[in-house]
Specification:
heterodimer; A: about 375 residues; Rossmann fold; 2 domains; four-stranded antiparallel β-sheet; B: about 325 residues; alpha/beta
């Protein structure tokens, strides 16, 4: 941990979309850091802006979207000279991103493997294509590497599989192929956008373990986008909780799961049934996410927050550092030294205590 | 129907699909279970295990290949007259996975929900029909102003509420929920599950809850059946399945559930189970009862082995 090398640094990113005559402010001042070999997770409801953030990193925002301000700095070492280069993706031209970044340095795994693969091409061709495009690899070499990749992602009899079309494979196999394609250019960063939501539980565990193995072997950094806290618990080192286009809480995985501070994080953790839940009713966060076409005054979460203070209605809270930690930050006025002391709900506290106990037995 | 009466009995149901002259897919291959009035029965299994097919055969979207389905004392597995099918549809309803795909985008919500009423002429005046729809909308947590809108004007969770309202309008005795919450966000899943529980309390309908999310299934179900490759490998109450799983497939499913607890999750490796290499034979196995409610599919030797394994782990 002593020499953490920063790969990606997002500062004060603002993104909006034009729809009709309205302007949707999807991302409102996001800061994010990613270090080499580490895994971060972005969690939040649909519409909270987690996918938009990563699409901006890849430079694949929809046509009506625009980056209003902010920077996405990406640092890498030149392949030949070993020289350290830092570039702002926001300022790069589309052509530069296409040749330098997308696919080559940052690769992405999408949610649904059926729609992200080309149904008219054999999977072998699809894995070879990026290598030949980005590095000018010869066909023979690309073929060899593709076979090796298929083996790495756990597909048996890879040489025969090269000739298969996507529809001939099962969902789990297809997702493995997508991962092989993403890895074909040896990227430094892998973005996984809900990689297992379309798969069922048994396969989900295997795919996650596969990504972890590959990450260890190749030392790449991974960004997970998900709303499944079970997945987050399994894979992430760092967690960013997003709400209405803002990161409301971030910290180490243990800090978020055992010492959550933001009422929204409390809600997310409580809403998930675990195997021992037998209450009459599951906890739900009241209300619904805000309409981002309207200017938000104050804290976006305030209308749904049982613990909202008066100031929440007027001023957007800044990031407060949690005492005794330099990784854990929370955007809530409750963290202000002058704020009244608010405890997390009793049921959640009980659950966290139980989780800690179970964890202690296991460790 | 009183609580505790058997409302649905499935006996050795087989549903085969002929793909070509050479190939027949045995989606469901001889499963038996029963559902009692007012209870929730959960069906779990991986994709391709036949859980959706089972649901669709029961509501007669398919013609079952073999076996018996007895619903409220009547056999509904054979050829049915149009009239019989029509009455069946008033007593059984379905909630689908994707709320956007299952609602007609060109119809207003009021007409979508009232379609059942329209088909069965279950009202004497338009006012009565509309009043019924308004009442249903309020029951599922929407308001009567929503009645004249179109499906695309709603969020995912609200659309699923419309789907539930449509299923409930005919006051069915059995509701088949086929992955009804899989397409929704965690926080909205909780809302929809709460709603389904509340509606069950109010209407006394039984649920067949088909899903692959085991923690949700455990929460909502009274009894659970585990399907694999068209066979019911294990069935029992929720506690029996989760605290004392016997079949290796059930164990592998349980081990795959992600726990929202990083300390456990980081070190846990899932337990894999592969039918081809396990040496088990589903065809030869038959139901072994452990308790009145808990049974597992096995041959005699396999059963002894399962029990020995179960003792070891205690």
């Amino acid at each position: 941990m002593s020499q953490r090398e920063k790969i990606l640094e997002i500062r004060d990113l603002n993104i909006s979309f034009k729809t009709g005559n309205k302007n949707v402010k999807a991302i409102r001042g996001v800061n994010l850091d990613l270090y080499k070999g580490e895994t971060i997770a972005i969690v939040g409801e649909s519409g909270s802006g987690k996918s938009v953030t990563t699409k901006a990193i890849m430079g694949i925002l929809a046509k009506n979207g625009s980056i209003d301000s902010g920077s996405i700095n990406y640092t890498w070492h030149d392949e030949k000279t070993g020289e350290k280069i830092t570039k702002d993706i926001v300022k790069m031209s589309e052509k530069e991103i296409q040749t330098e970044i997308r696919g080559r340095k940052i690769a992405m795994v999408f949610q649904d493997p059926m729609t992200s693969l080309n149904p008219t091409m054999t999977i072998g061709k699809q894995i070879m294509e990026p290598m030949m495009y980005h590095y000018g690899t010869s066909k023979e070499e690309a073929f060899k590497k593709a076979v090796k990749l298929l083996e790495e992602v756990g597909i048996t009899d890879p040489e025969a599989r090269m000739k298969n079309y996507p529809h001939q494979l099962s969902g789990g196999m297809r997702q493995r192929v997508v991962i092989a394609i993403a890895l074909s250019c040896d990227p430094y960063v892998l973005i996984c956008d809900e990689p297992t939501t379309a798969l069922d539980v048994t396969i989900q565990a295997k795919i996650l373990e596969l990504i972890q193995d590959i990450q260890k072997k190749k030392g790449i950094s991974v960004i997970y986008i998900t709303h499944d806290l079970g997945v987050v618990a399994k894979v992430a080192d760092f967690v960013n909780v997003m709400y209405a286009g803002k990161i409301v809480e971030k910290g180490l995985i243990d800090e978020i799961f055992y010492d959550p501070r933001h009422p929204y994080t409390w809600g997310l953790l409580s809403a998930m049934p675990d195997l021992d839940t037998d209450d009459d009713e599951l906890y739900t966060i009241p209300g619904s996410p805000p309409n981002l076409t309207q200017e938000i005054v104050g804290d976006a979460f305030a209308p749904r927050n049982l613990y909202a203070l008066n100031i929440d209605k007027r001023l957007d809270p800044p990031m407060f550092k949690v005492e005794g930690s330099n990784t854990h930050e929370v955007a809530s006025w409750l963290m202000h030294p002058k704020a009244p002391h608010v405890e997390m709900p009793e049921s959640l506290k009980k659950r966290i205590n139980k989780m800690k106990k179970e964890g202690a037995i296991n460790a | 129907m009183h609580k505790g009466d058997t409302i649905l009995e499935v006996k050795d149901l087989k549903q085969h699909f002929r793909v070509s002259r050479k190939q027949t897919v045995k989606a469901v291959d001889g499963i038996s279970f029963e559902i009692k009035a007012g209870e929730t029965y959960g069906l779990v299994g991986e994709s391709g295990s036949g859980k959706s097919t089972t649901g669709r055969s029961i509501i007669r979207l398919y013609q079952p290949t073999q076996g018996k389905i007895i619903f409220e004392g009547e056999d509904i597995s054979g050829k049915m007259s149009n009239k019989a099918l029509k009455t069946l549809r008033t007593k059984m309803a379905m909630i689908f996975q994707d709320p956007m795909a299952c609602l007609n985008p060109r119809k207003k919500v009021i007409d979508i929900i009232a379609q059942g009423l329209d088909i069965h002429h279950a009202y004497s005046s338009i006012e009565e029909r509309n009043e019924k729809v308004y009442k249903m909308l309020e029951m599922v947590g929407l308001s009567r102003e929503h009645a004249n809108r179109y499906p695309h004007q709603f969020s995912g969770g609200q659309r699923q509420r419309i789907g539930i309202a449509r299923a409930l309008i005919m006051e069915p005795d059995l509701i088949i929920a086929d992955e009804a919450i899989s397409a929704l966000d965690v926080s909205i899943q909780a809302q929809v599950v709460n709603l389904m529980k509340k509606m069950q309390k109010e209407t006394g309908a039984a649920y067949l809850f088909i899903a692959h999310d085991l923690s949700m299934v455990k929460y909502i179900s009274d009894r659970i059946g585990v399907l694999h490759l068209g066979h019911m490998v294990e069935t029992g109450t929720a506690e029996e399945i989760f605290n004392n799983p016997l079949h290796p497939y059930t164990k592998s499913l349980l081990s795959a559930i992600p726990h929202p607890n990083p300390k456990i999750e980081k070190t846990r490796k899932s337990f894999t189970y592969d039918y081809a290499t396990s040496g088990l034979d589903y065809e030869a196995g038959y139901e072994h009862k452990i308790t009145d409610t808990h049974s597992v599919l096995a041959t005699d030797e396999e059963f002894e082995q399962f029990m020995a394994n179960a003792k070891k782990s205690f």
